[in-house]
Structure formats: C-alpha cells, structure tokens
C-alpha cells in the first residue's frame, strides 16, 4: 500500500497571476509603455469606442491594440482598417479572460520600444476579466445604456477594479429606462474613486473627455 | 462561467506542488472557497471532474470545497456583520464605510497524496 499523506498549501489560486501582473507592470513602467485594459460585456461597443478614441489620439502618441477573443479576428481587422494603428488578435482558447501571462505573450508580438500606449481589449465578459489582473496600468470598463443602470449592483467586482467607467450609447437614452444619476450613484457605491464618462461611440459625443483623461494618466505615469 | 479557467489554475499549482514533493497521485484537493468569491462550488467541481481526469496525476481525484462565510467589518461602529445578509451597508449603524474581512478566498488548502 502506498503511503498517504497530506500536504498543506494554503495559497490563493490567483497568487501566481498577481505576481506575474506586478512584474509585467514594473517592466512596462521601465519601458515607458502604458497598458490600458478595456473590459465590458459583449456588444457594449468596445471596438467602436476604441476606433473613436484612437482617431483622436493617434497623432499625439504611438499606440497599438491587442484584441482578445475566444475565436475570430474581426476586431483586429476592424481596428486596423478604421484607424491604421497596429493591431493584433489574441485567442484565449476557450478561456473567458486574459491573465498576465497571456498578456505578456501578446506584448511579445509588439514593438514595445517604439510604443507609448497599448490598449488591450479584453474578452467580452463582466465576471472573469475582473478577477485576473493583466498587469495593466489602468482598467477601463464600458457599460452601455441598453444593459441597464443596475449592472454595478449585479457585477460589483468589475466596477470595483476599474479606474474609469464609460457609459456608452447615450444617443439611445430616450428609448431606454436608464437612469443616469442612479447608475452613477451605484458605481460610486462600489468604487468612490472611479471616473465616469457618459459618451456615444456612434456620434463621438463625450469621447474627447475620456481621451483627455487617458492622455493625462499616460503623462503622469 | 469562469470556473473552468480557475480549474486550470488549480491544476497548474497542484502539479507544481506534486513535482516538488515527488508525488505519484493526488486523491483529494481541498479548497477554501469564500461565500462572495464569485466561484460557484458545484460548477467548480463539475469543471474539475472533466479536466482532472485528463491528467494521470489527478485521475479520480476529488475536489472538496470548504465554504468560508463572508464577514464585513464596519470602520465606523467597529463591529462585524454577515456580508451576504446586509451587503455594503452596516446593519448596526447604517454606515457604508465597511470592508470585507473574509469570504473572498479561492485558496488551495491542502492535498491528500500518495507517493
């Protein structure tokens, strides 16, 4: 009979990822590259918002985009065609989020010495990406009007880890029972530090304010 | 829906510990899962069964989840309360100046192994 014994571990499943993420953040800081991690539910307008943002800032700094999806490369193509900036597609192979190791593998495909900003478009999901630190310098998330003003109450962790919340699709506000003040209050309840920018990626309204905020963050970093 | 990703993390960690300790087979992995960790224990064990049986080291290995009740601390009235019942607002003094003491764990507690 084999000897049976118990090995005590007591270690968080996320501990390794957090260590990887901190190391990646330190390396990026040294290289003076700002990594923005953009998260949201599927269909909230991440790619359209990015196109609006990039076309406003691409003349002022050197940037690239990493698109993370379970499969397909429509987003990377769309970004490249609409903005002309380098854009690569990462596949998570069924995983619902990116972790720091996968982010690093993506960054290895970019010319970091000649970049100031990398935007990571995370997998569309309000749960898992919030749990896994990617090593980003800032976290942004998009909540779109059709999703409803109650999402900060339902997905608290996502709103807690974000530095900035973009409330997208404000052009359709008249057609939805979306209470902007209530939504802002719910976000502040979860995260009093969060910056909130209502905008429309379709019309471009409000994107300038977000762009200025981002450029400020990059210059302070 | 993120339980499968977490299972892959657990497997990676368990394999590393097993290699360090020259373990041939792991029969049980005991987890501490916090009540508000957003991990659903029965989904975790379902994903575990599917993924663990693909590994020689973990064939038939059971994943046990200890549930850690969530407790929040109020910084204003210096009292604890049950997080799941009352959320972010302290039931004693109605302050929102509160933070989670425990209940967010996703930890590998121990392994039962044979070598």
Question: Keywords, please?
Answer:
heterodimer, A: 221 residues, alpha/beta, Rossmann fold, 7-stranded parallel β-sheet, 9 helices, 38% helix, globular, B: 115 residues, alpha+beta, hypothetical protein PF0899 fold, 3-stranded mixed β-sheet, 3-stranded antiparallel β-sheet, 3 helices, 6 strands
What does this structure look like?
The complex is a heterodimer of chains A (221) and B (115). Chain A has 221 residues and is α/β, with parallel strands linked by helices. Helices cover 38% and strands 22% of the residues of chain A. Chain A contains 9 helices and 8 strands. In chain A, strands 4-3-5-2-6-7-8 form a 7-stranded parallel β-sheet, sandwiched between helices. In chain A, strand 7, helix 8 (180-190) and strand 8 form a beta-alpha-beta unit. The radius of gyration of chain A is 18 Å and the shape is globular. The N and C termini of chain A lie far apart (60 Å). Chain B has a domain at 3-69 and 103-114: hypothetical protein PF0899 fold (2-Layer Sandwich). Chain B has helices spanning 3-20, 41-52, 83-86, and strands at residues 25-34, 62-68, 71-74, 80-82, 98-102, 106-114. A 3-stranded mixed β-sheet of chain B has the order 2-1-6, covered by helices on one side. In chain B, strands 4-3-5 form a 3-stranded antiparallel β-sheet. The longest helix of chain B has 18 residues, at 3-20. Chain A binds chain B through residues 2-14, 16-17, 94-97, 125, 127-128, 131-132, 157, 189-190, and chain B through 1-2, 4-6, 8-10, 12-13, 17, 21, 23-25, 27, 38, 88, 96, 105-115. Strand 1 (4-12) of chain A pairs antiparallel with strand 6 (106-114) of chain B.
């Amino acid at each position: 009979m084999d000897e049976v014994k118990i090995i005590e571990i007591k270690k968080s499943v996320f501990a390794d990822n957090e260590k990887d993420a901190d190391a990646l953040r330190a390396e990026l800081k040294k290289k003076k590259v700002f990594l923005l991690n953009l998260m949201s539910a599927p269909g909230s307008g991440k790619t359209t918002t990015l196109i609006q943002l990039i076309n406003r800032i691409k003349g002022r700094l050197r940037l690239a985009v990493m698109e993370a999806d379970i499969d397909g490369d429509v987003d990377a193509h769309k970004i490249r065609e609409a903005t002309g900036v380098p854009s690569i597609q990462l596949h998570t192979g069924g995983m619902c989020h990116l972790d720091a190791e996968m982010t690093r593998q993506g960054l290895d495909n970019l010319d970091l010495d000649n970049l100031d900003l990398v935007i990571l478009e995370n997998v569309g999901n309000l749960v898992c990406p919030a749990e896994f630190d990617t090593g980003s310098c800032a976290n942004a998330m998009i909540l779109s009007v059709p999703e409803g003003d109650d999402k900060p109450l339902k997905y608290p962790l996502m709103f807690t880890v974000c530095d900035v919340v973009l409330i997208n699709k404000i052009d359709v506000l008249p057609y939805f029972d979306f209470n902007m003040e209530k939504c802002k209050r719910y976000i502040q309840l979860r995260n009093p530090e969060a910056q909130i920018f209502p905008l429309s990626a379709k019309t471009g309204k409000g994107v300038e304010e977000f762009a200025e905020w981002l450029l400020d963050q990059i210059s302070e970093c | 829906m993120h339980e499968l990703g977490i299972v892959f993390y657990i497997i990676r960690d368990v394999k590393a510990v097993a290699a360090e300790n020259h373990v041939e087979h792991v029969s049980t992995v005991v987890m501490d899962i916090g009540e508000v960790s957003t991990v659903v224990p029965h989904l975790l064990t379902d994903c575990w069964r599917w993924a663990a049986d693909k590994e020689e080291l973990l064939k038939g290995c059971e994943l046990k989840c200890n549930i850690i009740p969530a407790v929040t601390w109020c910084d204003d009235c210096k009292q604890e309360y049950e997080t799941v019942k009352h959320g972010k607002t302290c039931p004693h003094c109605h302050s929102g100046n509160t933070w989670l003491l425990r209940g967010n764990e996703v930890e590998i507690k121990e392994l039962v192994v044979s070598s």
